[in-house]
Amino acid sequence: MNLLLFDAAELAGGSGDVVLPAGERRARHLREVLRVGVGQHLRAGLVRGATGQAEVLALEPELRLRVLLDGPASPRPAVELIAAVPRPKALSRLVQTAASLGAGRIDLVNAWRVDKSYFDSPRLAAAALAADARLGCEQGATTWVPDIAVHRLLMPFLAGARWPGATLLVAHPRAGALIEEVLPPGHTGDVALAVGPEGGWIERELDSLVGLGFRPVRLGAAVLRADTAVAALFAQIDLLRRLPAR
Predict the structure, then answer these.
(1) pLDDT score recorded for residue 94
(2) Element holding 126 (H helix, E strand)
(3) Residue of 193, 222, 225, 197 whose CA lies nearest to 209
(4) Model pLDDT, residue 101
């Protein structure tokens, strides 16, 4: 945990004293993993709000903190992720990775190669997805917790989705272009990134995405698992954005 996140309901006016019950997840992490002590200052933030510090006032019987948030909020990330639902074991990793690296929004979609049983997984419940996104933001030290939506039908989602002004990319291991050939160094605009299931998009899905303006790109020769591909793609996009424009 690199950023202690609070909800608006926990902080009236954005700052003040907060009490975390002994068994609460953040309290356990601060005690058992970070081993904080009284007087220690921690990086803190409000979900989609300001950043600052939290001072540890007491550890027992409850963890008591004094929070002062006087810094800027994390900006909304410029990348939106459209991802085919992966295996349940990989789903949490994918969501946490995307939130950690900076996703403005995450849309989890169906696809031909998505096993329909995946949609019965408790990991797709709204509360579980929100918890994973929050864990990712705590790791990545960002207060922007992305909205997450699940779409059981791909084509209706694509028909109604809009990404105005964004560069549209679809990851495909057999794409003719490398990502840096489509997304130039120094790019400053928004990006919508579509990542398929294990085995990739089928041709009809790929054609539908291309028809909407998505440009197929690949990272290199390796064929990656979905959660690994998300990490690699987000890192590559961030690098390209930081490089000087040609």
Answers:
(1) 97
(2) helix 126-140
(3) 193
(4) 97
> What count of Cα atoms within 13 Å lies in the side-chain half-sphere of residue 108?
27
| Structure confidence at residue 33 (pLDDT) | 94
Tokens of 43: 């990086």
> In Å, how far are 108, 151, 197 from 160, measured between CA atoms?
15, 11, 21
Q: Domains along the chain?
A: 4-71 (2.40.240.20), 79-242 (3.40.1280.10)
Low-confidence ranges of the chain (pLDDT < 70): none
pLDDT at 15: 86
Distance CA 82, CA 215 (A): 14
* Residues present in the chain in total: 246
What backbone phi and psi angles, to 5 degrees, belong to 137?
A: -70, -35
CA nearest neighbour of 167 among 148, 149, 184, 150: 184
Residue 114 DSSP one-character state: S
CB count within 10 Å of CB 68 equals: 15
Name 239's Cβ contacts closer than 8 Å, sequence gap at least 6. none
In 38-166, where do the E strands start and end?
41-46, 51-58, 63-71, 79-84, 105-109, 147-151
State the amino acid at position 42 in one-letter form: L
